[in-house]
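Moderator note: this is an archived Q&A kept for reference. The question asked for a predicted structure of one protein chain; the sequence and the answer are reproduced below.
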Amino acid sequence: MVIKCKKVEGIEFGLHTLTSYVLLQDGLPLVVPTAFLFNTAKNNKFKTVRTYQNPIKQFFTMIENSIRADGSISDWNSLTDNEMSGYLYGYLRQKKKLKDSSIQTHIAAISEFYRYAYDYGFTTHIPDFSFSYQDTGDTSTFLRNISIEMHDIYFTEQEFEDKLVAQVRSKGDFINERNELILALGYQAGFRSGEVVLEENMNIEKLRQKLPEVENRLPSTLKFDVYGKGSVYRTVIFPVTLVDRIYKFLWGRARHIKNGNLICMKNGKRIVSDTFATKLFRKCADHYCLRPEITATERLRWKNRSYHKGRKCFATNAVSLCMALKMDPWVYVPQWMGHTQKSTTFKYIYFDALLNKREAVLTKLSLDDTKYGKHHYAKKGRG
């Protein structure tokens, strides 16, 4: 199946004239990717849409020409993480011999496409692709790609405050403080987007029992049960700064809210959208990306970050906390995160060791590399 990309100039849009691209299959336009490219042309300079058009064309060509093991045809709306990694590694890395920088451009274009498709109602979810493209026959690549992946994802507590929380700009102090708290629950407590608004979580009555209003309250952490993935509870330790933020909102702007989830509308009604936190993160990150002094690399990193990826920052910081308190991260991080696979915890312990130059830990993990790398790839291979 041949997909062609045709350049279209002189598109009148309001007071502007745009240039974009149309993806054609058998002479007919592919609606969603073509709409995405036009939206990119509308919101960015032509250079961006020119950069994205070829990766999008190659991506959809792969999809149209792929047949799954069960005989079904691939579809962009149901693509699995294993299929995405196969495309990046098998086609772009092996066949096209692309360098990391070029593959990252393809990843950026695909990520933006899925975000557009979700925002405009073409899909009901944004896939949480790992975007890995390592050689599954060389487990030493496992550690190198952890480093590449996590360096792109990870941002510090100071960056969280300055580059994300500082972009919260809503009408009214209640909404501002609530939205700041939503971001903090992801970064500082590892909440998933859907967990933020679940009725079982952040219950006001439970919070007021654990954090009663007192004069001269001393800083403290807080153990709290979170209902999440797999319909199970996990116990999370809220750090001092998060507890302070919760306490201030609980007994301040949200004092009039008597029951239900603390994360609610100003009138106390429940927020029902499980993507509310995801969209809030995107809005704040995009606002930060408007700053003219930001480099292209920094802008790309924030474009590819998401609320869910804030959990990965939390996991890395949780390892650091365990090390500081002489607690075993292999025991506590899976509890706080809800991990079931030891290989998942492995990568956060490894990345923390890189960040904090823990030579003894790095040596130990390097010896375990083959064991966890093979387990990781075997798991991915099963889909």
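Archived answer notes: Strands lie at 3-13, 16-25, 28-29, 222-228, 232-238.
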